[in-house]
Structures are given as structure tokens and as C-alpha cells.
Amino acid sequence: MGTSVGGRTGEAPAASPAPPIPTTGMRGGLGRTLLSAFLLMSIVPLVLFILYTVRSSRAWVIDAAERRLEAVANLKAQAMDFWVERSLVVLPKGDDGTLRPPTEAEWRRIQGEVPALLGLTVKDGGRGWSVGDCAGAGTVILPLEIAGEPVSLCYRADSLQGLLYEGLSEGAVGKTGRLFLVRPTGIWPDDRGERQAEVAFLKQGENPNLYTFSDGEAVFAAYSAGAQGLGILVEQESSEVMGVVDRVAATHIAAALAVALLTTIAVSATTRKIIQPVIRLTEAALKVANGDFDQRVAVQSRDEIGILTYVFNQMAAELAVLYRELERKVAQRTAELQRSNYELQLQTLRWRTTLEVGQAIIAWRDPDALMFHVASLIVKAFRYVSVAFYLVEEGAEGQLRSIYPQPLDGATEEAVGRHRVKPWPDAFSLEEESVLARAYRSGAPQREVESLEALHAWNRRTVIRVALPLKKGERVIGVLGVISAEVEGIDGGIDEAEIETLMHVANLVALALENARAYESERALARRLKAAELFKNRFLANMSHELREPLNTILGFSRLLIKGVDGALTPEQREDIERIYENSRRLLQLFDDILTISQIQAGLMDLRLEPVSIGELVESIWPTAEALVRGEKVRLLRDIPPELPPVLADEQRLRQVLLHLLGNAAKFTEEGWIFLRAWAEEAMVYVSVSDTGPGIPPADRERIFDGFEKGVAGSRRNGIGLGLAISRRFVEMHGGRLWVQSEEGKGSTFTFSLPRYAPERKEEDGE
Amino acid sequence: MSRTARPPQEATILVVEDNFNNFLLMTRLMAFMGVKRCEWKASGWKVLEFAETLGEIDLILMDLMLPDADGYQSLEAIRAHPKLKDVPIVAVTANVSVASVEKARQAGFDGFIGKPLDPDRFPDQIRRILAGEEVWEPQ
């Protein structure tokens, strides 16, 4: 790589991974293409030419060989004819032209004239004869016919060999040329035994006269027939004949290769000269592609390549400018992105801290625990050295309430690098010049920067103290103090946004402290209320006892007087005492009712629920009920089935309800009956008290439950007071209902329902 | 409880009651029906304290809500006293719930009369108790 691009650091370019850039493989590419083209153009015609030449020379060579062999055959056939004729001429003949056996002398003469003739044999029926030696080795027999007579002439083989090869130049049949004598009885010398077939093949006149033996050897051959059924066969091995053609071909190929080599060298040289500048350009372009924009290529010629180089240089320069601009923009954008990313993180941190502070506020009611927890949150979130909370009581000094981290025992300083910083005083006076006091007075965040000197710059620290007021509305109730330590020169420390976040946290804490304070005072109030309630409860209980006792005494003694225990009374006295008695009774009833109502309203009326048998309860109150009904004209009746299930009720209250209803009925019924009935239906038990009283007008049927109502205007009986209201309330507290059905002039029926006792609800049988 | 019935005129009844008015009312009502001898003690503790000075007692009417010890403790103490152990003791109390009656029965009281006393019924109740009848009448 060349010089690195300005502004780039050692980092990889943004657009990694880069596509692989083709390298030296391309360098020979153009040259090779050119060379291939040139070679193709020169070698293809040459090869075609060679192919044609070899082909035509081959045909010519074969043709020439055939004709040559044919000529040899013809020549030798004539020579043989002549040779045989000469033998026949010298042989003695009879008058009829037939051969006659030669005499001794004649035979010697014949042998002298034709030394090659060794003997002859005539086979003419029974008159056959022979002369000379025909059976010896090296004898060749030629079967002939003379004057219609078959004659076998025996010749010396070497003489015959001489006849065949005599006068033949080497060029005539070559080195492998061979000649054969073809006889009707066989071919001489036939060393293969296949030559009869060869002769037959030749006689067919095939062209070329190329015969292939069974062992694969191929020969060019010619046959020429002579007189007397004899003939000459000439052979030459095809390899010798074709050797000429091969030599020609080899020569041509060598020539072609030489031409090709020369062409290659020439073309290479030329190509190299042409593409050298292109390669330089390519290399430069590759470097540019790799980011080295300072690449320039020297212009060496004024041809197209030169122009291309010049243009390339210009483009590279422009590219360099553009790329540097792009780099600058990317760097700028990256910086912006990093900044916004940092701000986003900060934002997230603030949100999280605020959220955690919010959770802490919910979780911690105790102000000191809350402040300590929030301080620890802030220290952890912002990596501060120390965070402290001060609270200021009205007009007093600011008191340190919570600090995180808590100083170790006896330690009064906090470590900042190698320095030690005194974190926070235990208190601050409102008038002093500390950052805490200033924040309290101004109601706005205050900061103080302290530089800690050090031997080395890298060890220098800046300590920043920020104090934020804890504000409740416009009132400052305390101060939140923060210490941050920064390595000098690296960071600006606590910035505006951070102070804003801290301010938000401070506001939250101030709110929470106020809430905690309010909660505390609420709790104190609640405690006082509870005490007051207990007092009231005791008071009511005492009251009922204290009030009842004297009233009961009054009732007892007035009753005593009425009964005449202390002696007879005058009618007036008796009437007066009865009045005292009746009103005392009403007063007692009123006390009871008012106390009960008060207890219900104060929520002090607790039911002691337990299984209660209606039958037993009614049994226990029956004497009282009978006492209530004093008139002779009213009968008190009851109908309670023995199998009636128990109810879940407060027996005391239920007794009150029953007595209220029975008392009411007795009060308003002057004659007839009062009937108490009970029955069960599903989950409820019902109790009704019917009477034959005056009944209740429809308009009053609900009002009688409101309290202090009189059932019948003008009745000489007393008002029913609070009894029905209390009874209804009691029944409803049990989960039941109390209602009235009435018909004016005929009577009323008060009915109430109570939940049946279910054994699984046993856990409610308290006390 | 087996004991010989005694006519009201010869009976001695001990009333254990912290409220003098109540005692007075009871005395008057009982006098009305013929009971001539009534003793009064304000608590079970005082009963034991003065047990030796008391004459023969035929019936004890005992308030269950007493100042020093409640009626049940007093009952136990009186039952343990050799002189008083056979005297019938009837509970007289304002707590008239069925449970309270049952508790009194379990504890060993011989009867139960509810408060406030009904002057119309009280003399008869005493008469019946003295006649040997068991009286359990909270109302």
C-alpha cells in the first residue's frame, strides 16, 4: 500500500469487507491473448498446408512404388520367359516336335550351354523318362508343357535366384524388395505360404496394391504373368515405401514448429512493448482502488496509451479530493453519532435513576432509610465519590442526615485517586459561604470546583461539588450534596443535563420526605384516634353499666312499692309510683338504645358469632316475654320445630332483637295473640313475630325502622323508640334481613332472616 | 343436690353482692315472702373471711361480677370450705347469655337468676329454690 489517506487512522475502512481486487493474474492476460491470436493465425495455415502436402506426397509415393514394382515384375517375367525358352531350345526334340531323351553327349552339351539346368522329367503315360538329377537339394522344378507334353525342368536354385535379382538396382525394389517365381505348382521361394492368396488378391487389380499378411505385415506388391503359366511376384515392405512419406511429414512439422517459435518470440516482444504502459496503469489503478489516491503514472508517449494515462492521473486526483471530503464527512457524522449515542445513554441512565428513586420512595417510608438508599443509587448511577443529604429544620442549621458511602469508622476523608477529600461536614450554618449554604439560600443548584495538585499531570484530579436544594414548592427543606472527581482535562465533569437530572431526583426526594413527614403525622393522628376510640369504647361500656345500675335500683324499688311490699298504697300514690316505674323503664330502654346506636356508629359493635339454637334462645327468654304480655286477653304462642338448624349469630344481639320484636308486639296488641314462628329455608333460618295489633299504615312501614318513630299516632302506648332500627341493624350485621308485613286493623308480622350455621365456618367462632 | 327443704320463715340466705342497693332490694323482696334472715357479704373473699361467724346458711345468692375474685373462683373457694361446702349456690348476674348459663352449670352452680331482678318473679324464684327446685332463669 502507498501512503495512508489523510485523516484515516489505522482502522479498517468503513466499507469492509472489500471485494477482492484482481492482481498480477491480469498482468499477462492481455499479452497472452495477443500472443495466442498471433500464434493461431500463423500456425493454422501452416498445419493445413502440412496436412495437404503430406497427404498428396503419400499418394504420389504409393503410385510411384506401384508402378516401379510393376515394371520390375514385367521385366523379370520377360527375362524368365527368355530363360525358359533358352532351355527348351537346347533340348533335343523328336520329329513330332516332342522332346526325346538326350544322349549322354547331348546332355553334356546341354549342361554346358545351360549350366543352370540340372535335369528334366517327362511324364507321358507309360513312356515317361528323366535325365539329370532333379531330387537334390537346391533344386527348383518348373512344370512346363512342350508340344502338349508336360515336362518338369529342374534348375539350380541359386541360378534361379540370380535370374530374379540380376540387374536390379537398389532403387528398383528398395532394401526390402523381394521377388518370387510363381508356378502353377506353387510359388518359389514361398517362406510364408500365403503368397498364393497374395497373387489372387493382386489379380483382382486392387488399388493400391497393398497386401497385409496375417501377421500384420503390409507389403506393396506387383504381379506379372509370363509364358507357360509362370509369373513373377514383386514385393516391397510398406514401411519402407511409406518411410519416405514420414520423412517428408517430419520435415514439414519441424519447419512449422520453427516458424511458430519465431512468431512467438516476435509477437511476445511486440506485445510486451504495447501492453507495458497498460500494466503500469493497471497497477496504479489497483493501488487507487486500495485507497492510495496519490498514485500517478508518468506519461511516456503521445499515443492513445499516453492520453489514457493522462486522463487516469486527472481522475485519480479528483478521486483523492472527493474521497478526502467523504472521509471528513464520515468522521464528522461518526462524531455526531457518538455524541448523540452518549446523550442517549445518559438519558437512559437518568430515566433509570429517576425510576429507581421513584421505586425507593415507594419502598422506604422511613426518611433516613430513604435518603440513604437514594444516595447509594445516585453514587452507583453517576459514579460519584460521595452523596449526602442535609435537612434544615426551620431556621436552624443544616444537619447531615444520610451519606453514601458511609465513611469508615473514624475516617473523615474520601479517597480520590491518591488524594484524600474531606467529603461532608456534619452540619452547615445557613449563613456560611459553603456550596451547601449557598444552595439553601438561593434555592438553585450551586457548584464548586477544586483542583487537586499532583506531581504528574495524569494524576491531577478535579473535585466538583454540586449542592442541590430539596424544594417543597418554594420552601427549601434541605440540600442534596454531590462530589464528583474527574481526571483533569479528560471530561468536563458534571454538565447541565446531569444537574437537571439530579435536580429532578432532589425534587422527588423532597416530595417523598414531605410525604413521609405527612405519613408520620398521619400515623401519630391515627394512634391518637385509636387511643380515643379505645377510650370511647371503655367509656361507653362503663357508661352502660354505671347508668343501668341506679336505674335498675329505681325500677326495682318502685316495683317493690307497686307490689305493696312496703304496705298498701293509696290509689294516687300507686299511680305516681307506676308513672315513675314506667318512665324509668323507658329511660333505661333509651339509654340502652342510644348506647347501642353509638356503638354501632362508632364501629365498636363487634359480633361474637357462634352457633346459636333459636329454640334454646327462645326458651330462655320465654319467661321475660310472658312477663311482657300482661293482659289476659293476649295469648303468647310459639312454633319452633325441634329439627331447626342452628344459626351463626351473636347470641346477645339476637336475644335483643327477639325481645325488641316480642316487646313491640306486646306493646301494641291489646287482644288476640302474639305468635313466634321459626323455620329454615336453604341457607337461611327465618324467625317471625306476628301480632293482632292495629297494624302499620303503608307510609310508616319503612319509617318505623328509622328510629324515634311512633307506630300509631295517638296510641296511648309508648313510642317504639330505637328498637326496630337497632334490630334491623343487628340482623343486617349478621348478613340477614328484617322486614315487616302489615294489614291495618288486623296486625303486623315482623320477619328476620339469619344465615344458617355451616360447620366449615367454624374458624369464625371467635372468643 | 340432696338437702332438706326448709320453709322460708326458717331459712337463712347469704347474698354475695357488691351493690348494696341490690342486696337491699333482694332482702325486701325476700322479707315480703317471709324470709327473715338475710346475710350480706360484698365479695366471695369476705364470705370466707367471715365464714365462722356466719350462722347456718341455707342458700347463697352470688353475683358473678365481684370486685376481688369472680363468681367462679368464689364458688370454688366456698365449695372447698368445710362449713359451706354443701350450701346450694345460685348465680345472680347480668350476663344472661346461654353460654353464660351453660358455664355456670358446668362450674357447679345450683341455679341461675338473671339481672336486673324482676320484683314480680323474684320471690317466687326464691320460694321454689328453697323448696328444692332447680331454677335456671336468666330472664
Characterize the structure shown.
The complex is a heterodimer of chains A (767) and B (139). In chain A, helix 10 packs antiparallel against helix 11. With 767 residues, chain A is of the alpha+beta class. In chain A, the strands form 6 sheets. Chain A has a 6-stranded antiparallel β-sheet with strand order 14-11-10-17-16-15. Residues 1-18, 709-718 and 761-767 of chain A have low confidence and may be disordered. Chain A is built from 14 helices and 24 strands. Chain B has helices at 20-32, 44-49, 71-80, 98-107, 122-130, and strands spanning 12-16, 37-41, 59-63, 89-93, 111-114, 136-137. Chain B has a 6-stranded parallel β-sheet, with helices on both faces. In chain B, strand 3 (59-63), helix 3 (71-80) and strand 4 (89-93) form a beta-alpha-beta unit. Chain B is globular, with a radius of gyration of 13 Å. At the A-B interface, helix 10, helix 12 and helix 13 of A face helix 1 and helix 4 of B.
Strand order of the largest sheet of chain B: 2-1-3-4-5-6
Number of helices of chain B: 5
Poorly predicted tracts of residues of chain A: 1-18, 709-718, 761-767
- Helix tally of chain A equals 14
Structural class of chain B: alpha/beta
- How would you sum up the major sheet of chain A? 6 strands, antiparallel
Mean pLDDT rating of chain A: 81
Identify low-pLDDT runs of chain B: none
The shape of chain A is elongated
> Quaternary arrangement of the chains shown?
heterodimer
Give a short overview:
The complex is a heterodimer of chains A (767) and B (139). Chain A is 49% helix and 20% strand. With 767 residues, chain A is an alpha+beta fold.
